[in-house]
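An example makes the point: we print one protein in full, the chain in one-letter code, the fold tokenised, without further comment:
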Amino acid sequence: MKKVKKVFGLLTATAMIAAMVGCGGSGGNNSASPSATASSSAAPEKLKKISIFQSKVEIAEQLEALAKKYTEETGNEVEVWGAAGDGYATQLQAKLTANEGPSIFSVATGAEAEKFKSYYYDLSNEPYVKDIAPNMALTIDGKVVGVPYGVEGFGLVYNKSLVDPKDVTDLASFTKTLEKFKAEGKNGLSLSQEAYFLIGHIINTPFALQPDPQAFIEKLNKGEVKMADTKEFQEFAKFMEAIKANTKNPLEVKYDTQMGDFATGKTAMVHQGNWSYAMLKDYGDLGFEIGMMPFPLAGNNKLAVGVASNWVINGKADPDEIKAASAFLNWLFTSETGKNAIVNEFKFIPAMVNIEAKDLDPLSQAVYEATKSGQTIPWALNYFPQGIIVNDLAPATQEFFLNKNMTGEQFLQKLDAAWAKAAKQ
């Protein structure tokens, strides 16, 4: 279950990103781009030594190797501070508070981004920002303050030998497809018992389809709206009724089993993300091609794509350090060495339209293409109250699947009650 834990770790950032708090050196007027002279095509300029601190332990060694290559190519020094895993945010806070913060650091989208917002430098006029894929930049108060590491996405992962996306485009066709597979003795769709795979991911869609998902969540937190009174959630409840009536009870399915049954052709579709390919590839040649299509709630035709972590520059550093930090990021996102590292060393799906990714697995390729084209819906779940998926929404969903007589409407009422309780804490 190592993969599941990793995914959960990426998805626990949950609070609303608020308006930017103005503070010395963190923003505003950087119209004279500090990295304008540091283009990867320009002659190297001697810049101040910088430091980088980030949370993804799985790229720690690769980042250190990349820093050495940066020094070799530009003559400028970069010190990579050891990644600290679960203790990262605490250590980062201590360093920043003591005015010993790194030049560049990472923040997770959601609660962590909110926590450290007073330290961000305004990147809006930096040359590499124009290459960030649509809707993927970390923005606060209309300013770009963070550049995404990469993207992940989820939707309906499907067996191309069994399912044609043209036949699964709305509630009626979705239900008909599940009924067809049930009649044939096959599982049309599988969820699994883990909290995010049971409800956390799939409920993202009705939130993401709101005109302003963050504003809707704020109103839900205050009790000003209810899921049960909102049309997208009313239809979501009908989707869940169709799943309950026509597929294997997800409370009897673990992630390993979910992906194993899909890999062996026993299940036609799973609601999963590009990370699930890591388990599928262990089965070798599946004997069929796979793809990822949108969860078709309210006719949705876009994948849910989001950013787990972002690079930001410490706006409280001195101007020379900020200039050097931005020059490094410019090199990272525009030089052949940097772009190659993002795709082939870090193994990220690029969130930059100027970075080509070749030889991606089919699921990552689907996410990559959706990202570049802007055919995405956001990860609204990043702005849920902290812990609500595991502690509140999952138990309500378990009750729905255990109680054969519970209707979709009653399920929504349970979710509203669970949300109201969580929002007060």
Remarks:
- Confidence is low (pLDDT under 50) at residues 1-41.
- The first strand starts at residue 50 and ends at 53.
- The chain is about 40% helix and 15% strand.
